[in-house]
Design brief:
The chain is α+β, with helices and mostly antiparallel strands and 225 residues long. The chain has helices spanning 3-11, 38-55, 63-66, 68-80, 140-151, 157-172, 186-189, 208-211, 213-222, and strands at 94-96, 105-116, 122-131, 136-138, 154-155, 177-185, 200-205. Bound molecules: guanosine-5'-triphosphate (GTP) and zinc ion (ZN). Zinc ion binds at residues 116, 118-119, 185, 187.
């Protein structure tokens, strides 16, 4: 590795990528993943995407195509893969449970827009998350933000599901968390096996959700499943 890159990586104030997650759940990132600035990443990706388009035989002087390499690069860095950067990790603040609410809270139909790490095409679907409040409750939007943060990375659905569950367990300070994701994979729909009707369901249950079949059934009933 180039010395200047490793020095910059070492200076990143967030430490090793995903160090707050169990090693088997971390997205595979190199130690120098954050050594380049956002603009340096965009410029580099645009250059490479320009090359891809050239190789496809496209005329990059065409008005409509000219801006595409930079458009794609910005989309990757600022939107599709913004969840790789720990600076975007949501700050999940807890509040004292003054309401004495002890039942399951479900946040359902959270939009999942992710990217298949095998083919770099979209994964689109819904996440449903639930937890049992103890002494603390969380601002509802933080549940959506946690889902979005981990979705905005190259992913497989199994890892995405477990990353969200582990983050919620840690930040909500309870094991009593459930995550269910139903999603369509464009790599299955638009190429290869070309199946437009199948979809993928994954679930992770912690604490009481893992032990209590009736609670899981109640979760699924609240989701209308
Ligand atoms: N487990 C898992 N597999 C996924 C996910 N997204 C895509 N895949 C699969 O990853 C596999 C990659 O397999 P390969 O055989 O290397 O790729 P491929 O030749 O493009 O496979 P086909 O899609 O069958 O044409 C495919 O079966 C994909 O359907 C995911 O989120 N989880
Ligand atoms: Zn794929």
């Amino acid at each position: 590795m180039d010395n200047s890159v490793s020095a910059a990586a070492a200076a990143h104030s967030f430490g090793p990528a995903d160090s707050h997650l169990s090693p088997d759940l971390r997205t595979p990132l190199r130690p120098d993943a954050f050594a380049l600035s956002e603009e340096e990443k965009i410029a580099g990706i645009a250059e490479h995407f320009h090359q891809i388009m050239q190789l496809l035989g496209l005329d990059l002087t065409d008005d409509s195509l000219q801006g595409t390499p930079r458009r794609v690069a910005k989309m990757y860095v600022q939107e599709w893969f913004r969840g790789l950067d720990p600076q975007h990790r949501p700050d999940v603040k807890l509040f004292e449970n003054r309401y004495g609410y002890q039942q399951m809270l479900v946040e359902k139909d959270i939009t999942v827009f992710s990217c298949c790490e095998h083919h770099f095409v979209p994964i689109m679907g819904k996440a449903h998350v639930a937890y049992l409040p103890g002494e603390h409750v969380v601002g509802l939007s933080k549940l959506n933000r946690v889902v979005q943060y981990y979705a905005r990375r190259p992913q497989v659905q199994e890892r995405l599901t477990r990353q969200i569950a582990e983050e919620l367990k840690n930040s909500l300070r309870t094991e009593n968390v459930a995550v269910l994701i139903e999603a369509d994979h464009l790599c299955v729909m638009s190429r290869g096996v070309n199946d437009t009707s199948s979809s993928t369901l994954t679930a992770e249950y912690g604490g009481v959700f893992k032990e209590d079949a009736a609670l899981r059934a109640e979760f699924l009933r609240l989701l209308g499943k």
